[in-house]
């Protein structure tokens, strides 16, 4: 059996030559026969890259959630990226497994040739059944080859589908940010934004319906006339002109179409399986927020040992404290700033610059007025208060960052006069409800004080 190699010894012809020439068709046939080697090479590099990227994406998701910025766009992008990584890893591992089986089948064929059913000495009934259902060994190899090639093509087609979804979401976010954010119905740009947004949403729904029905909207004469403008615009937005021939090649092949539809429920099942975890108790799920009976590790800064661990809303420095002080850290949240504006309207700027921005030209972003920054923190300190057990302590929160670069507000409280043992730290926040101001407990964190 000859050794496999990557030296194709292809005829000297440029890819840009006329595709109808016999030499070009011969080149494609040769590439088609030898493509499995490149498939395995690309799959290996892609699997390595995906396994490296997945933990980084998980950490980015954890950091994004810890910042509490409620940014739907980034959340969707990260969810899509994590889902795509799971699906791509599954596809490529399945491809490598089937390719390995295919290579093993080729090796076995070299040794023993085709299946000789007569030498197995089975009964006539079993022999006839196996000849019909199993068939020749060559047919088995050809079927494996079809599975491998289609799965490999689907894998990289999924990357473009993900890119298309990201571009659509990005287009919607851009329209909302440019035309609708902070604008009123008196502005002409608001109506432009509404029209563009309606076009995108309707086009997105029509494109999705056409996609899951395998081109139904293109088959009906009057529907195709309505759908064509959306189809043309979305082919540019989603860059589908780059991979559209691949899609139609799938659709005109029954085997590829069936395999594609078969993989969809598997992908849904795979995404669902990634959300599973084992619950050990009927009363606790061990990921609950801290309370008098629970101490969540995300509320203690020194217990955030994993790269993906970040402070969940509010934390103190340690569960067991021996120093005569306790550090309280409150993670920054967009809703905190909104609440500050309600209590102190003079701090609200005329233009809200929060959101996606570029580092270019934004080095001096934010207010340069130190008095406004002081008023901001003063307002924050009037909103938040800290109690240990039932005693109110004076606080002076300042802007700070954790070791993991998590933004927030921090203060230190002296506790040398409290008794040894367990204590409860309560962080409370004022809220405006109608015309009344109420105090709400944000978190209750247990800790143990044992001085040196």
From TrEMBL:
Domain of life of the organism encoding this protein: Bacteria
Keywords associated with the record: Membrane, Transmembrane, Transmembrane helix
Membrane-traversing stretches: 38-57, 72-94, 147-180, 192-217, 229-247, 259-278
Protein name: Uncharacterized protein
Species in which this protein is naturally found: Winogradskyella pacifica
